[in-house]
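Posting this for the archive.
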Amino acid sequence: MSLPSINPATGEVLGTLETWSAEQVEQALAAAGTAARAWAATPLAARCQVVARAAQVLRDRREELARTMTLEMGKRVTEARAEVDKCAWVCEHYAEHGPAYLEPEVVASDAGRSYVAFQPLGAVLAVMPWNFPLWQVFRFAAPALVAGNVGLLKHASNVPRCALEIERVFRTAGAPEGVFTTLMIRASAVAPVIADPRVRAVTLTGSDPAGRQVAAEAGRALKKTVLELGGSDPFVVLEDADLDLAAEQGLLSRFLNAGQSCIAAKRFILVETIAEAFLERFRDRVEQLRPGDPLDESTTLAPLARHDLREELHEQVKDSVAAGARVLCGGEPLPGPGAFYAATILDAVRPGMRAYEEELFGPVAVVLRARNESEALRLANDTPFGLGAAVFSGDTARGERFALQMEAGAAFVNGMVKSDPRLPFGGIKLSGYGRELGREGIREFVNIKTVWMR
């Protein structure tokens, strides 16, 4: 079988890569098992040097890597460059701060001396999505490698060239053979890898059905998992908000990456008294988005990553409109060979509609209207997901009180939800469990070992 690389902006087949045989997978697992022991024994400072060099490789190859992402996944080249920069940042962050995060912690007990040590587990399998082809991987790999683990990557099947480029970055940075390996396999071949005793833990970013499946396979093998799954993030605008700020941040949060982000603003919850004023500002900005070649820096709306994803999104929109939702703009696939969808605002969305109940993964903003702050909070939490959440208010203390009541792994006041290497990232409810990034992220895949001495 092959893994085709297709440009979603044109439909052009960029090339195909062959999937691996069982023998090739075994060779990779054997190499990872051997490398895990040697890498764990490598001094922490030397591991940090490799990850720091990976940051430099990323910066040196910024244009080339950005172009690869744009051609294969479809994101705007300006966003692709920013993604490469962020990958370099996370590598630099853990190269600098990893030693402090992993420093043994002395704890008073009945021992003469007792402390907690943080030691690597071994090979960690990462099952990663296509929407941020480099960032999703580096945010796992940088802390995992600094901690002394080795990485095995099963990337999304529609970004095989990006997957190989990531391995190349680490090899160029000086990572020994087996420390980071891209497995050229399809989803159907993941379960045996999870079950293999040389794999000690699994992390997945993706949909909640994929998370359930990976968690079940890992559970059968009694292996630690971290899951970052879907989101239906609320974007709440209270009556005292700066509406221009909220509209600008809402535009960026919803339409960045053509709306294909787990932490994008999915549900715009507007207090009724300012709803029309906000929508006037927001709609003006949305209607100025222009689809086009994502390699053209003047393009402001990228295609979706695949045609089937566009079709699924349009079905969600059509079903919601049939149930009473109102299209303020957009609402249709765009003509041409690419997987473009018009920038869309759906108003008058209510419970029972697909746009209310499901995650819409694309350039569609869903508008819910609330009578007051109390109802806005109820609507914000009326979702099975709990990844990110944002609230806008002219009173920061009020916004903070509201943020603390929103059911999410991250809550932002007067700003769009985003990930940051310095802060833990992850969700609750159907958005998964565990954390990436920050101190908490590097400690997910370590043996938190108690050492007690008389």
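The chain is about 40% helix and 20% strand. Residues 77-101 form the longest helix (25 residues).
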